[in-house]
Amino acid sequence: MNPLDCPTTRDRTVKHLLDHTPLPPETLLHLRHCPDCQQHQQDLRQLIQALAFSAPQPPPADTKVKMLQRLHTPKKA
Ligand SMILES: [Zn+2]
Fold it and tell me: Which domain of life is it from (predicted)?
């Protein structure tokens, strides 16, 4: 009776925890009724906390931008 499948829910959960995107109501509904996805979310949360703890200095916010710029910069031959 779940409106979403598990892969979609987990994908959104990952994005939610990493990028702080809001979880749509149907995703929350799925989580409420799916112990597997609840466990997945819990594991992810612990993993992210563990990573944050082991790396007290997160990469600068503009790292992504720089990486993109590097990708778009023509290579010097
Ligand atoms: Zn599920």
Answer: Bacteria
Report CA(48)–ligand 1 centroid distance (Å).
20
pLDDT at 2 > cutoff 60: no
> Is the separation of the CB atoms in 39 and 66 below 8 Å?
no
Distance 36 CA to ligand 1 centre (A): 6
Which pTM does this prediction carry?
Answer: 0.62
Cα of 47 vs centre of ligand 1, distance in Å, is 19
pLDDT tens column, 13-49? 999 998 889 999 999 999 999 999 999 999 999 998 8
Question: Residue 20: left if φ>0, alpha if ψ -120 to 50, beta else—which one?
Answer: left
Number of domains present in the structure of the chain = 1
Q: Would you say residue 1 lies in a domain? A: no
